[in-house]
Each structure stands twice: as structure tokens, then as C-alpha cells.
Amino acid sequence: MKLKKNSAIILISLIAGMLLLPIGIAMPILFGNGEAIASGAGGQGPQPAQEVVEGEEAPAEMGRDIYYKTEGVVSSETAPLTANNTHDYPRYGNFESRVLIWVANQQHLYYGSFVLAVPIFCMVIEFIGMVTKDKAMAKKYDQLAYDFIRISLTAYSLTAILGGILLFTFLTLYPTFFSYLSGIFRPVMHIYALLFVAESGTLYIYYYGWDRMREGVLKWVHLSIAVVLNVIGTVLMFLANSWIAFMMSPAGVDEEGRYLGNIWHAIHSALWNPLNVHRILGNMAFGGSVVAAYAAYRFLSAKSDEERAHYDWMGYVAMFIAVIFLIPLPFAGYWLMREVYAYRQQMGITLMGGLLAWLFIIQATMIGALFMTTSYYLWQCFGRMPGAERFQRYIKYLVFVAVVGLLVFITPHTIVMSPAELKAMGGQQHPVLGNYGVMSAKNGGINMLIIVTIVSFIWYQRGNLIPAVSWKKLGNIFMTCFIVTGSLNIIWLAVYGYYIPANVRIGLSVPQVATTMSCLLLMMPMNLAMLKGARVAGPIQWGKMPARSQYALIALATEFTWMMALMGYIRSSVRLFWHVNEVMRDNSPWAYTHTIGFAANMISFNVLLFWSTILFVFWLAAFAGKKSTVPETSRVPESPTVKDFTPQPAGRS
Questions:
Q1: Beta strands 71-73 and 62-64: pairing type?
Q2: How far apart are CA 60 and CA 72, in angstroms?
Q3: Radius of gyration of the chain (CA)
Q4: DSSP-derived secondary structure letter, 71
Q5: DSSP 8-state secondary structure symbol assigned to residue 371
Q6: By the 8 A CB rule, do 115 and 152 touch?
């Protein structure tokens, strides 16, 4: 046994060493001294100014970083000045090349987000199964993780194909721009390629080694491979985000777009960190929603009660993951917008109060729909839980608060109207409704909508459980007072924002967010503590869900998909007529901002195309899994306890 354990440790060390080798190679380039960095870019390291001596080369030309304001050795030519011709912008007849890039980029982003998120789910769920003492439940969790990774395997192949199509599209339609961008990031391009190969190898080892590493020390080796896989995937995403952030907020170059030899500055631009956080949360929520849609698809097509019970549980777990990352997502978005304002105030005004402002009204509608759909699914879950009917009579009050919060959140500050309508209303701003269009009111509206979702989940946690702790009455009073007081604080801060200057008002979002997160991070663990040793009203009837609950899961995934495409378009459009903001101008015949109607049609087309292909992935996963059966045990997981807060259904059989 000891020999087997030592062999397993040596094996995982070798695998980790080989797969993380590209990251090790990148370290000297990213964090080395100026000489190493410059040499990585094919230039010479920064040298102190020297006098020119006859017979010697002139000292290297120095430039000033437009963001970091540091000096660096000029290591490239100026950003190319493009022209409206077929050399810089090849085209196919009168067809708009930007549309082709749009579709290829969006589809690659969808699948890339999905295959990044799902292995993280698998790692967490596999770990839960490994530490679960109940052997039957351990097998059930292990099977669930295997189902997840099987879905992502086909999606990963499509991601690679779409990445190749995207690269080919850039090379053929925007060769000058792509040459400039790849020239800036040349020091890490080979790192990206090596990491992609390493991720592919790790994923296949992880999937095909599942059966051989199901027990003992080898199971921990298998879990370690999942950790390596997710580290590589996250680093890949960070590198890809650096290119996007550079286009919005360039760094590492001077005013003429000349590379200054410091690749870390080019990567670590002003918007890189908030973009990383926003995309990690968005990818996780998106991946969870897509897996939930897969479970709903399997539930609706199931032939037996056992299958329906399994996929009902699978849908719940995936939805749980999506909601956990959905709740902080708006706050990450606020941080990103705040950093955009800090980098260039004009960009922030273009986004939130100018050309693109109406797209944020659409985005607000989609965010509200996400939280409403999530709450609706949780309310439907009460029907399969004996004893949960005690909460159903209060749902109408949650609906009222949610609808009011949503209406405030989606109310525009100004309205596009004809001259006659403007005259009749007395201006672009409605004398009453216009007051709800400012950020002070919108912050209050979205936070109250999140509070409704949190309360719905707390009720769901209780479901068929009746608290039996000695302090249950005091605990219920405290939780009620805490949530009510928090809600009143959010509303008061929203109202108070009308009486202070705008530059102070924007800071009120911080205490509002803190209040909402306090309700989430304090009340949910307290609720679990109250459920310790709770009396069970009856077993959860897994699979006894109406079809409309599964349609809600599919709607949730569709809303995520549509909103991701919308936010991608907004992020790209804020550059207006620049390839790289204020450095490389877009002189193509398509360097203009599309109408909202055209953008909405393109976004909808991308959503339909993605779901057409992902349905094929679902079918293929189901087809490949026909030989494997749902785990023999129909037992459902026990309800979460205070010491085991895992994404499992809140109920006991």
C-alpha cells in the first residue's frame, strides 16, 4: 500500500510538472528584468542614456508608457495606419466583414466559457463525493461529475474548431490589425499555444482515467489532475482577457503604439483585473445554467421515474452553482464600469449615459429576468417538498417586491421621443418616472431583487425541514429582523442618494452591496445551523416536478446566453472607431456603431446558432451515455448541515 501511495505521488508530481511547464517558462518573461523582457520581444533591454561614440551604435530609442508613465526601450514600429482598401480590410463582395468576426468570436466565447466552467464543477463535485461518508451518495456525486465532464468533452472539440475558425477569420479579414496585436503579445503567444496543448492532454487524461482512478490514492491523483486542468484553463482565460483589455485600455506602448518591451505592462492593463473577475463569475454562472438546461432536456425526455429523479437532482445542483455565481455578478459589473470611468471618463459616459445607454436598459431587463426566473424555479421546487406549502402563501409578497424592484431597475432616465411627444411631456425626462432612471434608484431596485432571491433560497433550504433547535424562535425573529432591516437600509440609501451630489452618490453602492452580501453570507449559514437535527416533514419527491419548472431552467440558460452576447457587444462597441483605443484607428467601411435593432438581431442569431449546436452536444452526450445507467440507488442527498454546506438538495429521504 505504501509503495502504491508513493508511486501515485511521484506520478502526479511528474504530470503536474510537465503540464505546468509552460507556466514556468512564462515566469522569466512576465516577471524578469527589463533585459529579459525586451529580449523576449526581440529587442534590447533598457540601457542608460549614453553618449554616442564614433564607431559605436546609437543608444536605443526610449518611449513613455501611455498608462504606467514609465520609460521603456522602443521595440517595435508605430501602430499601422490603415486605409479603406482591400489590403488592410479584405472583403467578400458587399458583405460586412465585421459580422463574420462577430459570429466567429461570439461562438468561440460561448464554448470557451462553457468548457472553462464545467471542469471546475466536476472538480468541486468530485471532491464532495470523496469526502462524503455515505458510500452510496459518494457514488452518486461521482456519477454526476462524470456526467458533467462527458458533456464538456464534445464541447471542447467544438471550442478548438471554433478557435481555429476565429483565427483564420482574423488573418483573412483583418490582417493588418491582427499582425499588430500579435506582434505586441508575441512573447506569450507560444505560452498560450503550449497551455492549450497541455489543457487538451490533461482533459483527456482526466476523462479517460476516470474508471482506472475511482478508488484509494489514485482517486486523489485523479482529483489533482482536475486541479491542474483548472489552473491551466484559468491562465488561458487570463491571457485571452489581456488582449481584450489591451484593446480597450492599452498599456505597455507609447502614444504612437510602439511596444516598449515590457510584456507584463501590456497584459496588466487598467481593465484586466476587473475583466478577469467579471468573466470568471459570468463563465461559472453561464456554465451552470447550460448544464441545468441539459438536465432539463434529459428530464423532459426521460422514460422512467428513476431517470427523472436523477436529472431533477442534477438540474438543481447545476442551478445552485449558477445562482451562487449570479448573485455577485452585478457587483463585479459595477466594479468593471467603475474602472472604465476611472480610465477614461468619456468611455464611461458613452456606456452609461450616451450612445450605448439604451443597451444597458436591455441588459437591466435581462438581469431582472434572470433573478425572476431563478426565484420562480425555487418556488416551483416547493411542490416536491412536503411541508413547504407553509411558505407558498407568502410568495405573492415576494413577487410584488421583485416586480417593483425590476420595474425601477429597467426604467430609463430619458426616453427617445418625437418632437410632439417631447412637447407634450415637457422634456425628455418624465416628471415622475424619470426619477427612477438614475443609478441611485437602480441600485436599490437590483439589490431588492437579489434579496428576494436570497429569501426564496432560504425558504427552499427549509422546505421539508422544521427547525428543532432550542433557540429556533429567537433565530427566526433575528433572521426576519436582519433581512427586513437590511431591505430598509437599501431603500433608504437609494432615497438618500437624491439629496447628495452625484460624485458622492456613486459611493452609496458600496454599503448597499455590503448589506445584500451580509444577508447572503450571514443568514444562509445561520439558517443551516437552525436546521441541524431538524424534524423531517417528509421525503423530497425527486422527479415530481411540473414541466414548467424545467422550461424555467432552459429559459435561465437562454437568458444568460443572450445577456453574454449583449455585454460582449457593449464592451466591444465602447471603443467606437478604434481597433486599439486611441492608438490604432479603425478605418474600415464598417467603423460605425450599429443600430440597437441590428445589434439585437445579431445577438439573437448568435444565441440561436449556439443553442442549435449545443443541442447536438446534448444529444451526443445522451447518445453516448445510453449504455451507462443512472446510479442504482434512488436515494437523494441529505440536507446540508452547518458543517457540510455543499451544493446538494436541501432535504432528507
A1: antiparallel
A2: 10
A3: 27
A4: E
A5: H
A6: yes
pLDDT at 177 over 50: yes
Reduce the DSSP state of residue 633 to 3 states and report it.
Answer: coil
Low-confidence winner among 62-71, 81-90, 432-441 (lowest mean pLDDT) = 432-441
pLDDT in tens, 187-241: 898 888 888 888 888 988 998 888 888 888 888 889 999 999 999 999 999 999 9
Distance CA 137, CA 65 (A): 57
Assigned C-alpha cell, 492:
433608504
Name the pTM for this structure. Answer: 0.81
Q: 77-86, 145-154, 219-228: lowest mean pLDDT where?
A: 145-154
Q: Alpha-carbon distance 561 to 563, whole Å?
A: 6
Contacts by 611-615, CB closer than 8 A, 24 or more apart: 611/558, 611/561, 613/107, 613/158, 614/114, 614/155, 614/290, 615/297
Torsion of CA 421, 423, 426, 429, to 10 degrees: 40
Closest CA to 147 of 622, 638, 647: 622
Instruction: Please choose, from the candidates 284, 155, 283, 288, the residue with its C-alpha nearest in 3D space to the C-alpha of residue 556.
Output: 288
Q: What is the pLDDT of residue 211?
A: 85
| DSSP letters for 383-425 | GGSTTTHHHHTTHHHHHHHHHHHHHHHH--SS----HHHHHHH
Question: Residue range 370-374: average pLDDT?
Answer: 90
Sole residue written with cell 468611455: 347
Of 285, 638, 627, the closest CA to residue 465 belongs to 638
Q: What are phi and psi of 72, to 5 degrees?
A: -155, 160
Q: Which of 634, 642, 648 is nearest to 319 (CA)?
A: 648
Residue with cell 416536478: 545
Mean pLDDT of 447-469: 90
Q: Taking the CA of residue 121 as centre, how many other CA atoms within 13 Å lie in the half-sphere pointing to its CB? A: 40
C-alpha cell at 485: 432591516
- Contact yes or no for 502/622 (Cβ under 8 A): no
Round the average pLDDT of the chain to a whole number and report it: 83
Residues in the chain: 653
How far is the C-alpha of 366 from the C-alpha of 326, rounded, in Å? 12
User: 3-state SS string over 321-345?
Assistant: HHHHHHCCHHHHHHHHHHHHHHHCH
Q: What pLDDT score was predicted for residue 359?
A: 85
How far is the C-alpha of 614 from the C-alpha of 56, rounded, in Å?
A: 63
pLDDT digits (tens, 9 = 90+) for 580-638: 999 999 999 888 888 888 999 999 999 999 999 988 888 877 766 554 444 444 444 44
Q: Residues 582, 584, 586, 588: what is their CA dihedral angle, to the nearest 10 degrees?
A: 160
Alpha-carbon distance values, 404 to 51, 371, 485, 513 (Å): 72, 13, 18, 19
C-alpha cell at 58: 546609437
Say how far apart CA 203 and CA 116 lie, in whole Å.
Answer: 11
Residue 455 has pLDDT above 70, yes or no: yes
Angle at 407 between CA 405 and CA 412, to 5 degrees: 120
Rounded to whole angstroms, how far apart are CA atoms 310 and 504?
A: 51
Q: What is residue 594's predicted lDDT score, i.e. its pLDDT?
A: 86
Coil/strand/helix, residue 585:
strand
Any idea which residue has 419527491 for its cell?
A: 541
- What count of other Cβ atoms lies within 10 Å of the Cβ of residue 481? 10
Instruction: Name the phi and psi angles at 554, rounded to 5.
Output: -65, -40
CA distance 233 to 328: 22
Q: Going by C-beta distance under 8 Å and a sequence separation of 6 or more, which residues neighbour residue 400?
A: none
